[in-house]
Write a structure and sequence with these properties.
The chain is built from twelve helices and eleven strands. It has helices at 79-88, 95-101, 109-121, 139-147, 160-173, 186-199, 220-232, 238-248, 250-253, 259-266, 302-312, 318-324, and strands spanning 34-40, 43-55, 61-65, 71-72, 205-208, 214-219, 271-275, 279-283, 289-294, 327-330, 333-340. The strands form two sheets. Strands 1, 2, 3, 7, 8, 9, 10 and 11 form an eight-stranded antiparallel sheet that branches. A hairpin with a 2-residue loop joins strand 10 (327-330) and strand 11. The radius of gyration is 19 Å and the shape is globular.
């Protein structure tokens, strides 16, 4: 089967006519709309609700489903902003290294090898990483890893590239290494400013991510705006350097079997990053952007919702179909699917 050819986003198709919800608290009792349905043997057995926003090329909201102005934790969708913060703090990274600093990598051998190489380049030891030991994020790689007799490791954890970059800039600046994850650490204060600058809004709350790093809450509108700003940033700026590295080396941002990699590789100029608890943000080279969160955190709904939104934006090609395909099995054969519901 021939390899799919790169596709360019076409002109946006007509978006559904909706009204943006009024802003509410993040703990609002308002029930968000259904974004995806779980269909087994022709029967809808479940639904995934959530919120989604699409920005036009001018940055204006073109589609809003649910509470798009309420704060959410973007989880790893914040990583491009964290990587830009590391650059602003003074670390000179580029290419695969900068892509890995922005990554939720799959834990494949080339990811682990580059993390170890970067640690050695800055005189650091894997034991200094404050991310928890973990197995590879990718299921196929996890099976191979365990079959080899390997055990959970900090380097293998999907955020180890980000943590390595954070440690490296602290070592370079003479900042404390042991407390690099403290929200009041000079590095984290710099990242906080980058998030607010990119999102165009104040950080609503600060929590702790699964990897232990500070996590800044912003709205889905702010998250889409941030990705749009990275793609449109001037060449040479920290934001543009991150966007360019991610787009040039998408396999280091995610992995060989991941939707972020496929999209950035096959839709030239796109910037894509998922986050835990079913968060996704994408910016297209013409300035359009999207961000969404599935309310129950079900990552199985990410692909169908992302593919449907890309289709509404006029992005076509095999990659969209591949991202959206989420079959359900029964007795070892396909009996249904998870499909977008908007």
């Amino acid at each position: 089967m021939p390899a799919p050819q790169p596709t360019q986003p076409s002109q946006p198709s007509q978006l559904p006519q909706t009204e943006q919800s009024a802003p509410t608290s993040a703990l609002s009792p308002v029930v968000p709309p259904v974004l995806a349905e779980v269909v087994r043997s022709g029967f809808v057995e479940g639904r995934h609700r959530g919120s989604l926003v699409v920005l036009g090329s001018d940055g204006a909201v073109e589609l809003a489903l649910g509470e798009v102005t309420a704060p959410v934790f973007p989880r790893s969708a914040n990583k491009p902003m964290q990587a830009a913060g590391v650059l602003r703090a003074g670390l000179d990274l580029a290419g695969e290294r900068l892509a890995l600093a922005s990554a939720s990598h799959s834990g494949e051998p080339f990811h682990r090898d580059l993390v170890r190489k970067m640690l050695a380049e800055y005189g650091l030891d894997p034991a200094q990483l404050r991310c928890p030991p973990d197995l590879p994020l990718d299921a196929e790689e996890r099976d191979t890893y365990l079959a080899s007799g390997a055990v959970p490791d900090r380097v293998t954890m999907n955020c180890s590239g980000k943590h390595t970059a954070m440690l490296a800039v602290c070592a370079q600046r003479g900042w404390p290494l042991e407390t690099y994850l403290d929200p009041e650490h000079p590095l984290q204060r710099t990242i906080h400013r980058v998030v607010e600058d990119a999102a165009g809004e104040p950080v609503a709350a600060v929590g702790t991510d699964g990897c232990g790093a500070p996590l800044m809450a912003i709205s889905l509108v702010g998250l889409a705006r941030a990705f749009r700003s990275f793609v449109g940033a001037e060449p040479g700026t920290a934001e543009r350097r991150v966007a360019d590295a991610m787009r040039a080396h998408p396999e280091y941002v995610a992995g060989t079997r991941r939707a972020d990699t496929w999209l950035m590789r096959e839709v030239p100029g796109s910037l894509s990053k998922m986050g835990a608890e079913a968060v996704q943000a994408v910016a297209l080279p013409d300035g359009r952007a999207l961000a969404f969160k599935v309310e129950d955190g079900a990552t199985r709904a990410l692909g169908p919702v992302l593919a449907r939104t890309l289709t509404l934006l006029g992005v076509e090609g095999d990659v969209v179909d591949r991202i959206g395909r989420t079959p359900l099995l029964g007795g070892g054969r396909e009996v249904g699917e998870i499909r977008a519901a908007f």
